[in-house]
Automatic annotation (TrEMBL):
Residues 16-474 form the Aldehyde dehydrogenase domain. This is NAD-dependent succinate-semialdehyde dehydrogenase. It comes from the Bacteria. Keywords: Oxidoreductase. It holds the Pfam family Aldedh. Belongs to the aldehyde dehydrogenase family. One of its GO terms (molecular function) is oxidoreductase activity, acting on the aldehyde or oxo group of donors, NAD or NADP as acceptor.
């Protein structure tokens, strides 16, 4: 066990529960392959306890005045910022991303608690003039009820923060199930909320076999709202389960982000910043760019800059301050990269950079650039979710848009051009929930985060983020 890694618990009813006689799952440092901790897995009784506590605490929390909810969330944000170096180190140990990326993520997680603290004070309704004398018509917005929230391992701070901050600001209680591969970060957020004065039982954090936990929680009549971030297949499954109970669900699923680079763009900027965007988080980022579509007359220049920048990246342990690309999260990710590349090469693709796993300890894979990838290759249809970039030329705007929109994904998309008319047309034509024009950084606390098509529905962040945790109540009074 790594002595730098925090002990792991379940958090139910305001109590930090150790493994005791519960089953556990190993947490592994992906940079070394060594076990650093054991996360306790909730039993059916634990889940029932979490649900009952969430039911009881909801009545108290929803009646807590918005100003008090806001103060607790802001205090939690302050505590997260104070503890950011420690939380970031925990994240890098369990997830592998470079320490500076972890620190940036923790900082942005705190920003969500600050943002939604203010949103708690702005939950309002309206008075609607009646068409009959002596009638008062009100529309109130109230917390929807206890929430079941499911988050993945790749962004273990910011993804839970988006869900927790909005749900708690609205007045909902929450049962959160983070990814078992990176549990310490979510527990650190829970500890900050607990230390900030969140009433006991308003938040539960449980771990377990994902299918068992999700089926148990979603089937419970106590749960009134479901929110999930993860893969498209699991999103479909949870959506069907939620539908059985007629429960609203917010889904933020996968993507296969296209980038349209026009010949009139700053080609070097689009390429160099594209490398940073693609290989951030070792490519395990749902909104990162994966398919780079370059107008044919600029294709050779873009390839030259992109390959050179890719080959210059430093791969290593995320705790090393020089590291730019850390390990993949687990051996499954390694195997997937090898399979996707082998399939593409067998069908005619060329490897311009990388293409292989690194020998030795840890789950390291070279940042890889593929060209001439045929449409029959799996990677042209499946989200790679790893350090692979695809480069391909296009001719006209219509051709580029056709390829960009070909897949059922619609999470993020990007375009680079110096022509204002082209920028308007491409932004209008791209089928994605989030679009960056001449930039790759499109996520901000005050803006909605979400996709369309099979990349999910509903948004988190921004003024839209709290809406999914509220329900409208119409009152007509004489």
């Amino acid at each position: 066990m790594n002595t730098l890694y925090d002990p792991l618990y379940l958090f139910i009813g305001g109590q930090w529960l150790t493994a005791q006689d519960r089953a556990t799952a190993a947490v592994v440092n992906p940079a070394t392959g060594e076990e650093i901790g054991q996360v306790p897995l909730a039993t059916a009784d634990d889940l029932d306890h979490a649900l009952e506590v969430a039911r009881l605490s909801f009545d108290q929390w929803r009646q807590t005045v918005p100003d008090q909810r806001a103060k607790i969330l802001k205090r939690a944000a302050d505590l997260i910022l104070e503890r950011a170096p420690h939380i970031a180190a925990q994240m890098t140990l369990e997830e592998g991303k470079p320490l500076r990326e972890s620190l940036d993520e923790v900082t942005r997680a705190a920003e969500y608690f600050e943002w939604f603290a203010e949103s708690a004070r702005r939950i309002d309704g309206r008075v609607v003039p009646a068409n009959r004398p002596g009638v008062l018509q009100l529309v109130k917005r109230q917390a929807i009820g206890p929430v079941a929230a499911f988050t993945p391992w790749n962004f273990p701070a910011i993804t839970p923060a988006r869900k927790l901050s909005a749900a708690l600001a609205a007045g909902c209680s929450v049962v959160l199930k983070p990814g078992e591969e990176s549990p310490s970060t979510a527990l650190a957020l829970a500890r900050a909320l607990d230390d900030a004065g969140l009433p006991k039982g308003v938040l539960q954090v449980v771990f377990g076999v994902p299918d068992q936990v999700s089926s148990h929680l979603i089937a419970s009549p106590i749960i009134r709202k479901v929110t999930f971030t993860g893969s498209v297949p699991i999103g479909r499954l949870l959506s069907a389960r939620a539908a059985e109970g007629v429960k609203p669900i917010t889904l933020e699923l996968g993507g296969h982000g296209p980038v349209l680079v026009f010949a009139d763009a700053d080609i070097e900027k689009a390429a160099v910043e594209g490398v940073a965007n693609r290989f951030r988080g070792t490519g395990q980022v749902c909104i990162s760019s994966t398919r780079f579509l370059i107008q044919r007359e600029a294709y050779a220049e873009f390839v030259e800059h992109f390959v050179a920048a890719t080959q210059a990246l430093k791969i290593g342990d995320g705790m090393d301050p020089q590291t730019q690309v850390g390990p993949l999260a687990n051996p499954r990710q390694l195997a997937k990269m090898e399979q996707l590349i082998a399939d593409a090469v067998e069908k005619g693709a060329r490897v311009l950079a990388g293409g292989e796993a690194l020998p030795g300890a840890g789950f390291f894979f070279q940042p890889t650039v593929l060209a001439d990838v045929p449409m029959s290759a799996r990677i042209m249809h499946e989200e790679p979710f790893g350090p692979i970039a695809i480069l391909m030329p296009f001719d006209e705007l219509s051709d580029g848009l056709q390829e960009a929109n070909r897949l059922p994904y619609g999470l993020s998309a990007y375009a680079f051009t110096s022509n204002a008319r082209t920028a308007i047309d491409v932004a209008d034509g791209l089928e994605a929930g989030m679009i960056g024009i001449n930039q790759y950084r499109i996520v901000a606390t005050e803006l909605p985060f979400g996709g369309m098509k099979e990349s999910g529905h509903g948004s988190e962040g921004g003024i839209e983020g709290i809406e999914h945790y509220l329900t409208n109540k119409f009152i007509s009074q004489v």
